[in-house]
Amino acid sequence: MTATPNKTAIITGASAGLGLQCARALLASDPTWHVVFAVRDVARGALAVEQAGHPARCTVLKMDLASLMSVHAFADDFRGRGLPPLHAIVCNAGVQVVSGTEHTAEGVEMTFGVNHLGHFALVRDLLADLAHPARIVVVASGTHDPAKTTGMPAPRYTKAADLAHPADDEPVDGRRRYTTSKLCNVLYAYELDRRLGCGANGVTVNAFDPGLMPGSGLARDYSVIGRWVWRYVFPLLRVLPNVNSTRSSGAHLAALVWEPRFDDVTGTYFEGTRPIASSADSYDREKALDLWETSEHLLESAEYQDQRGESRGRPAQ
Questions:
Q1: What per-residue confidence (pLDDT) applies to 214?
Q2: Which of 58, 80, 66, 10 has its CA nearest to residue 38?
Q3: How many angstroms from the chain centroid is the CA of residue 167?
Q4: Is the pLDDT of residue 109 over 50?
Q5: Which residue blocks in 157-198 are alpha helix, DSSP H?
């Protein structure tokens, strides 16, 4: 007898890469899950559903993390679909912008806006919809930790307001903006966990390092040579520790969503399925508080502008 789905997981960025592989693994591992593919491009999302298998247990919904209005609309759309109760949110989608500065619809620097603020808004919008027990998993990266040799520049966290709105004369370093956004992911996961009672209220929150995944879409803004190296040379490094395929990392991420051994684990940073310490800065409560309060302020400012009916298109690049 076929099991009937009785719980839903939302996975952002599920149209390709790690998000798609997480969806595939979750659908294959536990037939009681229904998966929402939260994607910018619905057509690509539909193709991803075909690749993941089990289309009857999948729903594709449009969401652009670079637009808070789109995030809010997604939450409303989700509530109206009559899907099984929401038991998991996987904050997976991410961008790395190395060629100049781009902005979200609200004028926030794109890397910070997508990798952190859009997910902050999504979780805030859906917290009341979570059916307990529930799990929230935030995809971070080992590049957030300067103590690790990753080939990426160390994060530079001053104030969240500086990350959201960099000064015009600030040198553009897209790779550092990326590693800093990944530090924000860990700071946010820990702060959210504290505010939700460290698991006592039925919701666990963990951060996940998928490792280096050659061939994933993060290099799409690199130079032609950089993209070639990423696609064809870096896969040869998979013999090294924590260099993984998207399929293996996707299976690890799915395990954090559904496996019973993680039922009561919260406030933890995982490298794959192995709990490890994150960077020293990621435990900085002052930075976490600054990030949380600034994020709330940015959302409130955007909502105020929406109420006034003002147009807030993307600034000219």
A1: 63
A2: 10
A3: 25
A4: yes
A5: 160-164, 174-195
**Measured between alpha carbons, how far apart are the two ends of the chain, in Å?**
56
Q: How far apart are CA 266 and CA 79, in angstroms?
A: 26
Vertex 220, ends 143 and 167: CA angle to 5°? 65
CA dist 25 → 12, 20, 21, 38, 243 (Å): 15, 9, 6, 16, 19
Between helices 119-126 and 174-195, what is the axis angle to 10°?
20
Report how far Cα 246 is from the mean position of its chain's Cα atoms: 15
What is the CATH topology of the domain spanning 7-308? Rossmann fold (3.40.50)
Q: pLDDT tens digits, residue range 50-97? A: 999 999 999 999 999 999 999 999 999 999 999 999 999 999 999 999
- Neighbour count for residue 119 (Cβ, 10 Å): 27
Q: How far apart are CA 125 and CA 120, in angstroms?
A: 9
- The two structure tokens encoding residue 127: 């917290």
Cis peptide before 31, with omega less than 30 degrees from 0?
A: no
What residue spans define the domains of the chain? 7-308
CA distance 31 to 241: 32
Interatomic CA distance for residues 278 and 184, integer angstroms:
12
Closest CA to 65 of 141, 18, 127, 12: 12
Phi first, then psi, for residue 169 (nearest 5°) are -95, 10
Indicate if the pLDDT at residue 31 is higher than 70: yes
| Mean pLDDT, residues 163-181 taken together | 94
pLDDT for 150 equals 82
Q: Is the dihedral of CA 290, 205, 40, 242 positive or negative?
A: positive
CB contact at 8 A, 33 and 10: no
